[in-house]
Amino acid sequence: MITLTGHTLTVEEMKKLLLEGEGVTACPTSMQKVAECREVVEKIVEDGKVVYGITTGFGKFSDVLIQKEDVKALQHNLIQSHACGIGDPFPEEVSRGMLILRANTMLKGVSGVRPLVVNMLLEFVNRKIHPVVPQQGSLGASGDLAPLSHLALVLLGEGEVFYKGKRVHAMVALTEEGLEPIELEAKEGLALINGTQAMTAQGVLSYIEAEATAYQAELIASMTIEGLQGIIDAFDENVHKARGYKEQVEVASRIRDILQDSKLTTKQGELRVQDAYSLRCIPQVHGASWQVLNYVKEKLEIEMNAATDNPLIFDGGEKVISGGNFHGQPIAFAMDFLKVGMAELANISERRIERLVNPQLNDLPPFLSPEPGLQSGAMIMQYAAASLVSENKTLAHPASVDSIPSSANQEDHVSMGTIASRHAHQIIQNVRRVLSIEMICAMQAAEYRGIENMSTVTKSFYHQGRQQVPSITNDRIFSTDIENITHWLKTNDLIKERLDVNAAL
C-alpha cells in the first residue's frame, strides 16, 4: 500500500501502482489540510464573495456571477459540458494513473474539495474501477479539461468504466461495489478537471516503458556487436571518461559488462581498424537518450506532486489566487524531448539491422537467409524497421510548438501537451518493434558465429529469445515473430534479468 501525501510520489511508486496493481491510501495529515481548505470554500459560498470558479462561471464566463442556490448545478453542468473527448480510450493504466495523480494533487490542501472527493478517487483506484477516457480532445491548457471531465463523470455515476475486464456503465460498477455516486459541491468540478493529469499519467507510463526499452536496447545492441564481430576497444572506459557525460560512461560500462567474456568481439586492428558509427558510437547515442530520460523523469516527478488546478487557496483563505498551473508547457516540452530521444534509439538500431543483413557490409549469408536467392530471409524485416523509423520522424515533430486560442481568446495560448504525450507513447511502441527486428537478426547472426562463443549474458538472452521465436531455417511469416518478441520485451523485466546475470559473473 502506497501512501499519497501530495508531495512525495515517485515514478518507482507509480510503476507499482500502474503495472503491479498496488493500492493507495491518503496521509492523515494531508487529509486534514484538505478538510481545512474546504472550510474556506464553504465560507466563500456562505458569504457570497465573488471568487472565480466558486461563485462565477468559467473561461470567458468568468465575469458571470452564480447565485448560491445554483452553485451545485454549476459544477455538474461543467463536468457534463466539458466531457467532449473523442477517439479510442486511453489504456487502463493511464486512466488509473489519472485517478491517482488527481487525488495526489488534491492532497496538497490548496484545491478546496471535500475529503469525500479524495476518498472516492482512492476507492476507484483500490477497487480497480478505471474510467473510460477518450484520448483526443485536450489542448493541454486549461489543463486536460475533456479527459478529466470523463474521469469526473464516473464519480457521479455517469459515463463508462473498465471493470473486471469489461467496459460497463459507471453505475454497474458502483452498485456491485456498494458505492454511492457523489454530488459535487462548490469548486469541486473545477478542481477535478483543471489540471495536467492526463498528459502526466500518459507521460509516466511512457517513461516507464521507455526506461525498460533503453536497457533492452543495450542488450540487443550487444548481441549485434557480437554478430558483426565488433571492436570492443571503442567501449574502453578512458574514451568515455575523456568526454565526461555520465550517461555515456554508464552505457559503455554496461556493454563492457555484458560482453566481458565474449569470444566474438575483436580488438582494434584485428579484423578492421574501426567500426561504423552505429556500432562504435552506441555509448554516445544511447547515452544521450539516457540524458533525455533523466530530464523527463525529473519533470514528471515535479508534475506528479504539483497543484495544477485553479484557483488555488492559500493562508487559510486569505489568498484565493487565479493562476496558470494548469498550463501543460513543462510536460509538453518533456514529452516532445522524450519523442526525439527514443526515436533516435530506433534510428541507430535500424542502421545496425542494415549491417546485419547487407552482404556488402559483413561476411554473413546475404539477408541472413538459409538459402540466398530462393529464400529472402530477413530482407523485408529491414524494410519494416525503416518504415517504423520513418513514421517516428513524423510523430517526433514537436506538438508543443503549436497553439490555437480557445474560449473566445481568454485561453489564447495552450500547450498541446497531451498530444505530445500520446505521440511519445506511440513512438516507444515503434521503437520496441524495431529493436525486436534487430534482436531477431542478431540471434540469427549469432548462430552463424557460434552460440558457444557468445558472452554469458548474451547467451542467456539468446536462449530466452529463442523460446519466443525459432531460428530462420526457411522463409515464413515473420510478422508473427516480430510481434512475439515485441510482446515479450514489453511484458518482461529484462533489466532485472540482466542485472542478475551480471551479478553472477
How would you describe the overall organization of this protein?
A three-stranded antiparallel sheet has the order 4-6-7. The protein has a two-stranded parallel ribbon with strand order 1-2. It has a two-stranded antiparallel sheet with strand order 3-5. A hairpin with a 2-residue loop joins strand 6 and strand 7. Helix 9 (197-227) packs parallel to helix 16 (417-449) and helix 11 packs across helix 13. The chain has 19 helices and nine strands. The chain is mainly α and 505 residues long. It folds into two domains: 2-195, Orthogonal Bundle (Fumarase C, Chain B, domain 1), CATH 1.10.275.10; 203-401 and 414-504, Fumarase/aspartase (Central domain) (Fumarase C, Chain A, domain 2, Up-down Bundle), CATH 1.20.200.10. The protein is elongated and about 85 Å long. The mean pLDDT is 94.
Based on secondary structure, the structural category is: mainly alpha
**With helices defined by DSSP (H or I, 4 residues minimum), what is the helix count?**
19
- Tell the overall outline: elongated
Number of strands: 9
Helix content: 55-70%
CATH superfamily of the largest domain, by name, is Fumarase/aspartase (Central domain)
* Percent in strands: 5-15%
Order of helices and strands: EHEHHEHHEEHEEHHHHHHHEEHHHHHH
Total individual domains: 2
Output mean pLDDT: 94
Summarize the topology.
Blueprint: E1 2-4, H1 11-19, E2 24-26, H2 28-47, H3 71-82, E3 86-89, H4 92-106, H5 115-126, E4 130-131, E5 134-136, H6 145-155, E6 160-163, E7 166-169, H7 170-177, H8 188-193, H9 197-227, H10 237-241, H11 246-258, H12 277-280, H13 282-304, E8 312-314, E9 319-321, H14 329-357, H15 379-395, H16 417-449, H17 456-466, H18 478-491, H19 494-504
Parallel strand pairs: 1-2
Antiparallel strand pairs: 3-5, 4-6, 6-7, 8-9
